[in-house]
Fold this sequence. Notes:
Chain A is α+β, with helices and mostly antiparallel strands. Chain A is about 40% helix and about 15% strand. Chain A has one domain: Class II aldolase/adducin N-terminal domain (L-fuculose-1-phosphate Aldolase, 3-Layer(aba) Sandwich), CATH 3.40.225.10.
Amino acid sequence: MLAELKKEIYLANMDLPKYGLVTFTWGNVSGIDREKGLFVIKPSGVPYDELKPEDMVVMDLEGNKVEGKYNPSSDTPTHVELYKAFPEIGGIVHTHSSWATSWAQSGRSIPCYGTTHADYFYGEVPCLRCLNKDEIEDAYEKNTGLLITDYFKENDYKAMPAVLCKNHGPFTWGKDGHEAVHNAVVLEEVAKMAARCERINGQVEPAPQELQDKHYYRKHGEGAYYGQGK
Amino acid sequence: MLAELKKEIYLANMDLPKYGLVTFTWGNVSGIDREKGLFVIKPSGVPYDELKPEDMVVMDLEGNKVEGKYNPSSDTPTHVELYKAFPEIGGIVHTHSSWATSWAQSGRSIPCYGTTHADYFYGEVPCLRCLNKDEIEDAYEKNTGLLITDYFKENDYKAMPAVLCKNHGPFTWGKDGHEAVHNAVVLEEVAKMAARCERINGQVEPAPQELQDKHYYRKHGEGAYYGQGK
Amino acid sequence: MLAELKKEIYLANMDLPKYGLVTFTWGNVSGIDREKGLFVIKPSGVPYDELKPEDMVVMDLEGNKVEGKYNPSSDTPTHVELYKAFPEIGGIVHTHSSWATSWAQSGRSIPCYGTTHADYFYGEVPCLRCLNKDEIEDAYEKNTGLLITDYFKENDYKAMPAVLCKNHGPFTWGKDGHEAVHNAVVLEEVAKMAARCERINGQVEPAPQELQDKHYYRKHGEGAYYGQGK
Amino acid sequence: MLAELKKEIYLANMDLPKYGLVTFTWGNVSGIDREKGLFVIKPSGVPYDELKPEDMVVMDLEGNKVEGKYNPSSDTPTHVELYKAFPEIGGIVHTHSSWATSWAQSGRSIPCYGTTHADYFYGEVPCLRCLNKDEIEDAYEKNTGLLITDYFKENDYKAMPAVLCKNHGPFTWGKDGHEAVHNAVVLEEVAKMAARCERINGQVEPAPQELQDKHYYRKHGEGAYYGQGK
């Protein structure tokens, strides 16, 4: 069942330790088959070096397990909400990667200080509020998802494929699991350079809007000219 | 004698350089056989790449060497006190891992800034005072152990399997040597992210208590639902 | 066509990930054949582990593609301006290497705090202004090149083979692609140590001019005595 | 000539990149045969991955080359002064290792904040003044050596086998090249943790003298009990 998608998402999960984004089992990637309305996700708490493609768990968009011998990632209800609210995404990543998580813990959004950031994320990467007591105690992971999708009712989830959850860590997404991992790697690098940049100059200002526009649209949309075209 | 435990603790010791927690010989893992009242520990000052399972030294809980051609780790009297006072632990780790030691040198406890911390350590990781002149000059390593066990008379050593000794470094423990090493790796990661988090936001506050509760109890105790169950 | 130069510049490009200077495709090296007036450069957006020597794109100094199945790096117009204005260079590197880019984002030039810096770069590594709206919107990459070459009308590009572009990142150059990469590695190390040095001592002053002179001229010019001579 | 010493010092030099202490050729190890009054040292500017044991250059204590096809390290006159003034050392290391060099550039001595430091270095690692204009212009490398040996007329070079030269970098020494490299690795680790410690607590004080004494004498001198004895 969904053998190809399982393999793709297995490989995307294995990229998390390869790029240094996870310690132990602290991360997960999922990917969706939009036609069937099913997604596959890493099982909860299984070490990366024991993981196999067939271990990926198949879920539906009500959060029911459709197939799999393992429990799905405990963050699965968050993934469900994102897939339901963001119709054009095909993959989601959650990690506790060190620099992005440090920003999330600090409660600050990551300002756009340069072109590395602007090439991928349009504007500052938002840090959302911590859930309140009721939201935490009842359906914590689902409420995390609702908090994120609520924010993106007013914002473009395609121009900003990343978010920080306060006191927790980052989520990223993309057209498939591979792109979602790619964005997680970029976010970590951007988070690192923004922190160092502020230390080097405590008065630093975000990059001018026209530079942010230039770099973002150099890689995205109608007028894009970076890379080898379609 | 205790061949299986020696092998297990040998492997746990070898995980210290694998996870980047030690330089040269600056670390040690021990593990106990509660039925026999004996524990095995790394020999003192032997390089990791020369270590063999049979080099592990067997000790009793009075601190006497029962078997082994080498001297045990110089920190052995600290391990003895912890095994005596914490009846449910099976393994202990001491390292000079870089970030945890930097916090220990700074004399500050590590606040709980997020869920990575809360998943493993309930509340701030305590930094205990430096020993005084008398305690240092007479039975230094034993007194280090007594300082730790004294603190945990009023605190739960199972909900906080880590401590920092001021001007020195961290100790961690767990149900066996493997879990104690696991906790040492987590502590290092948590120490790193807490330091960076404070640099990104000098006014940062600890995570709300309800979030700390949620994450700790998601993984521990009766209602735990992380991972694949028992 | 230019098979030897392609191979040399291919190898220089492959040194960027080897030395940890690039994430994904964020960097490029070019090298010029001055007699033919042609240079070769990495194609745009092709991953390093798929790159082959024959993929290098051949360009002339008007910025026309002379040979190659791929589009050249989107930074090619910047390289063109540097080759035209700096007659004695043979290779150029652009990266988003983490520490140098953090300085570029901060908008600060890198002071010369010690002999590691002085051995390669004479004086502070300049951080140039951000381009203005008109310069960004029309011929952005070419204008980046003109901004750099304009600065070096009044400054010696051979004594300072590196520059930071504000909100963007570093460019370095040298007598060939290999030396340009060498300078990019040194710049990253110097940027790292300057940032740390300022954290250790917030009042630190640049190294005395006589020490800067000594180290620079120990390795460059008539009286050089470092290394094995010519 | 001195084939065994050449091999030993070759291996000690190869440990510098292995432990991450050098970029390119920025470091050198020497070792002395006290009976013959000759020492061997790395050649100047030869890459580590091309180095062979027979490339080591043999020097006498007047600074004359006795054997070798290459020029010796440009820092050779500094080594000469240290061998002459410190009769019980057998090896010397100079690097531009990142954290120790950052302290040297900052002009600050490294305070003893904990037992990792105290196990190897008794008291703060001194940062000596920058040479003045005359000292730099005439016999720079020799004057660097004299500045160091001058400091140790009043201080114990065996209890402090390391020094920082302002705006330059560290030198370490030991009973042979291997121990000198060991001390260079420790210095880098200690420098890193001291910088981080100060960031975590801006008001941190050095470790109490009695703790420094305890750890230093646990490993050195008559009453030492760390390791496996003689």
